[in-house]
Amino acid sequence: MDEQQQNPPAEPAAPETPDAADDLAKKCEEYLAGWKRAMADYANLKKDAERERNELSKYAVAGLIEKLLPTIESLRQATNVRPEEPYEAARVKQWIDGIGHVRNQLESALAAAGCQPIDKDGIPFDPTQHDAMMMEKREGAEPGIVLKVLEPGCKLHDRVIRPAKVIVAE
Questions:
Q1: Looking at the whole model, is its pTM more than 0.85?
Q2: Strand order in the sheet with 159-162
């Protein structure tokens, strides 16, 4: 037989006087009340943190929307003044230049929000940033080089949101 079976653990000593028992009971109640308060505070903290997280995620794009509003207004103005038939070359050129300006505004707003295009060709294929749509043999091209970007990709800070669709040299 092992030692624990022979010698069971000793029971806590009973208080020697009724006053000591009352003091011990009061301490136990105080500790229990403190523990309950701490648990309630922790539960409230969790609820507050969850509420703040939801609020933050709900309005996280507010800054981007604020940067895009002037672009949307410019696009609205450009579509309201499109050239009418018969088309005058100078008027059409002005309209195309205006649409180009709107595109530049949009790209600037996205860049300010941390969005970077993945749109370069002539660089080594990177499967974390590129999606190879096809392989092509091309005279003088090194294997594994991006020959052409079919559709630009997008990175937000250091995370790829959408890989670029590319043609890669065989």
A1: no
A2: 115-118, 153-156, 159-162
